[in-house]
Amino acid sequence: MIPGKMNSREVKRMMQQMGIKQVEYPDVKRVVMEAGEKNYIIENPQVVAIEAQGQKSFQITGTLKEVIGKKKEVAKEGTEFPEDDIKLVMEQASVSREKAIEALKNAEGQPADAIMNLMSN
């Protein structure tokens, strides 16, 4: 049988016979990969795990967003931001502390993006 001529049911059957499992993760909202001085964020990902011989491999497709700068955790609900970043946003955008924190949350912890978003409103 020629691999290019196989239908998806035959491929699944062959994978099952070889002990290869494939699992989809439909509820993943984004994937974050931390590296050195950069974070790579994949928005709206489609994530599939393929398990063979006790090893898991992940196939991820989506929109890549590269975040350059000092390494930071991606902002989440309840995440604390560095005081310097909060003050910078407050001063540059002339807003209250609460608005600065909210802007940082919306900008995934990136002060420059937070300031630009506040200034454009």
TrEMBL record:
<comment type="function">
    <text>Contacts the emerging nascent chain on the ribosome.</text>
</comment>
<keyword id="KW-0653">Protein transport</keyword>
<keyword id="KW-0813">Transport</keyword>
<dbReference type="InterPro" id="IPR002715">
    <property type="entry name" value="Nas_poly-pep-assoc_cplx_dom"/>
</dbReference>
<feature type="domain" description="NAC-A/B">
    <location>
        <begin position="5"/>
        <end position="80"/>
    </location>
</feature>
<dbReference type="InterPro" id="IPR005231">
    <property type="entry name" value="NAC_arc"/>
</dbReference>
<dbReference type="GO" id="GO:0015031">
    <property type="term" value="P:protein transport"/>
</dbReference>
<keyword id="KW-0694">RNA-binding</keyword>
<dbReference type="Pfam" id="PF01849">
    <property type="entry name" value="NAC"/>
</dbReference>
<dbReference type="InterPro" id="IPR038187">
    <property type="entry name" value="NAC_A/B_dom_sf"/>
</dbReference>
<dbReference type="InterPro" id="IPR009060">
    <property type="entry name" value="UBA-like_sf"/>
</dbReference>
<protein>
    <recommendedName>
        <fullName>Nascent polypeptide-associated complex protein</fullName>
    </recommendedName>
</protein>
<comment type="subunit">
    <text>Homodimer. Interacts with the ribosome. Binds ribosomal RNA.</text>
</comment>
<comment type="similarity">
    <text>Belongs to the NAC-alpha family.</text>
</comment>
<dbReference type="GO" id="GO:0003723">
    <property type="term" value="F:RNA binding"/>
</dbReference>
